Amino acid sequence: MEHNKTIHAIRIHKHGGPEVLTWDELTVGAPGPGEVQIEHKAIGLNFIEIYQRDGLYAMPLPTSLGSEAAGVVLAVGDGVKHLAVGNRVAYASGPAGAYSTARNMPANHVVKLPDHVSFELAASIMLKGLTAQYLLRRIRPVQKGETVLFHAAAGGVGQIACQWANYLGVRVIGTVSTDEKATIARAHGCAEVIVTSRENVVERVKALTDGKGVPVVYDSVGKATFTDSLDCLKPRGLMVSFGNASGAVDPVPLTMLAQRGSLMLTRPTLASFTADRAELEESAAELFEMVGSGKIKININQRFALKDAAQAQTKLAARQTTGSTVLIP
To answer: pTM here?
Structure first.
């Protein structure tokens, strides 16, 4: 077992813009009890890392960033039974630190990769795909014949979730910011697409649902869309606010929910839905089956070297990416 390994990691020593990301050389010791050491082959890029970098999600500094990656197990700590040296693995939760060439990771958060799932594919689907899985299958299992509203339908989570919902027989109304992204959304399972730069979301949703609204809205945009999302719901509908791409949502008076017909509101995180080992294994297995069988097609449309993470984050924040983006160590 290696006791000390020199690695490189993208870290922040203060909160701020992309310029605060640094390329640091570090030493990683042997994995402790319940840990494995993973050499990364591909790393996923997600909005949560921007929130961590700019301070929206405060973290002790200095810290590495990154939520998901795939690679090979280099060493195994005491007490780890389900993983062995040489295993191909991936993860999408636990302590930040995926923006690195290698790291120690709690083994309970790590799953084995089936042979048909490549490192790049795994790094691009673990966080987004497991998010789509809990949104559609666990928070409130969607039903065949329902109509739902999904914001940012051309984004990484959107492309996976809309295909998945479509496979389940759900009619998806997607929102996008441009006509180019509308084409992408339609190609990934959206029956209807609203271009927010020139269309009124609430009016279009009402028109597309005979004035009734939808039973559930999935909103990762945040501040800019929150009130419109509530107005798209039918009475007793569910608002799933799972991201803040446009900024954090302002405090919500409960009367906003009452006045619109006893709405329900949840602010879930992937960590809460993968904390249980059995649930993580079950969710990952379903995700790998959906992707491996071709029911969900994944587009890795951007690749950056890990050391160029600042450039990758800048493009993501500016909505200049589509599908998934991976960082290569």
So the answer is: 0.89
